[in-house]
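the two lines:
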Amino acid sequence: MTIPTSSIDQVIPGQGAMAQPEAAKPGRAAKRRKFRFISNKKAMTGIVILGIYLLFAIIGPWVAPYDPDARGKQFVAPPSADHWFGTTHLGQDVFSQILVGTRAVMLVGLAAGVIATILAVLIGVTAGYLGGGWDDSLSALSNVFLVIPALPLIIIVTAAVPSGGDTLVALIIGLTSWAWGARILRAQTLSLRRRDYVEASRATGESTWRIIIFEILPNLTAIIASGFVGTVIFAVTSEITLAFIGIGSATSWNWGTILFWAQSQQALAQGAWWWFVPAGLAIAFLGTALSLINFGIDEFVSPRLRSAGKTKIKTTSGRTVRMRVGFTPVLDNSAAPHTHASPIPVIGGKPTPVTRSKEATR
Amino acid sequence: MKFLIQRILFYLFTAWAAITINFFIPRLIPGDPVKSLLARFQGQMSSDAIDSLYVLFGLDKDASIWSQYVDYWKQLFQGDLGLSFTAFPSPVSEVISDALPWTVALVGITTVISFFLGTSLGVLAGWRRGSWIDGLLPATTFLSSVPYFWLGLLAIYLLAGPDSFFPSSGGYGTDVVPYPDWPFISSALQHSLLPALTILISSVSGWILSMRNMMVTVAAEDYITVAHAKGLSDRRVALSYAARNALLPNISGFALSLGFIVGGTLLVEIVFSYPGLGFLLFRAVGAKDYPLMQGIFLVITISVLVANLIADIAYLMLDPRTRKEG
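prediction for all of em together
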């Protein structure tokens, strides 16, 4: 499980918050590995889509054709050349609302992800490495946070502090969603702490924190990255959910706010699909992009999970063979594909007659 | 047995933690939100009810936190969660017990169906890697990224309508009374189809993916090769050797992700105006009905803990190792 510390770090935006103490030497091997992660089709697609979102988070408010709050003359108008995604009940431009809303969504998602990841690393690695009483109490704490339904908790906390805004929402989501990452990190740290190289640095008298930071953490990079991406997905969905049910930030635009107005102004009954479909698709594509990056990381760490690609292969004689891990395909005379090792069927269903000469039997 | 006792102790601890969180949250509310609410119902509330709200919300600044905490527990054990402001003067416990069966029926049944369906598809996808089911994975990824409630909105827009078979909102038709007879049950079933379908579509993909990944991992184990070498049928190896072992982590995953799922499904209720806990929470949030919000959070948490305990018992029955240790 030696994962190059640099490769994942550089291709995932927002990962900069995770301190990487050991800068990987830009050798040929590192370059090749980096290329391998990007060459993963899923990860690459995800990164490209995420890049587009990040771009719009930065330039969104500048390129938006209208002020998202400005009222127009066309009410609940379908998409047209003037208003690409149509208008709302007040004549506001839905396209501009989505562009402007991207920034809040990305900011809250990334901020919550960073908070949760830092907590997960602190708690998970401490529990896994120190063991004993630390482990018992910290695992109990993370299990409690795992089992308590997060969304209702976030809803009632945010509802209790109504004037919080985006910062508070990010903080609450970050503080409540670290438990899953901590659990996985603890398990991985447990398996790392008895490795030879850790024992060796312990024997040379390195301090506990030095071992954790320089020996353990670099080998957890992939898991930390995948936990971060997972938390961002959860944070984005939770934030939009909060806005959709009308709590959290009421002043700034995000996609949930658009859905909130669409729902409360009976967009469905009016058949105004343009009002809620774009916001939902924006969420779905962002979520898909992040999941794809996560699959890329997973497959990078554990090659077994890769989609097998084309497993049915035609041989030169026109038969199909299904390739499988651990099995050598056996060809027989039937055209049916072989799925597993089975005795080669005997033609005719009878045992092959053995003709022996009289001399041999004697 | 030891395993089970450990788990029960853990759930008791979690319940205690949740109740303690619930005790502190109202004390975070800046200002005196309940004072204004009390003013709204001045003269209509009995002094007992006002006292119980003081205990729940810590408005009684004279008492120490500790004595407030003790009073809070005493009140909980009597089943007193305060009075609901939106459904005044009914107590919160009554309002919640009206909504709870709807949620248990909808969310409980669909979650279990989704788990079984997703797990079986995951077994297929993991066993026959590279078959057409692998082609479904990107689609399921997309579906699981969609928020539940948005899928619900889309379902209403596309499938429900005045002339459609699917009603767009409510838990039962306006022409029936909530009484356990056939017209009511069929109407309730008809109303639950679309929300159930929404939950199913968005939650099934998670199970497919985790089961597929476990199957792929298990399928490369030596004992699977041995089972094949013994000449057992492919089906038997897949189900009794690979799937059985791959199922164990999936069940503990099921228990742990229940909290997430329940959170998501509550939103489906909001979209469909389904008379369950989620819709109730939505209305409570809208009306700033703090006692009701607290009560709903408590009930949801306790239900999730109970469901977790059930999943643990299932795990106990499936994994012989946990039994041996006991």
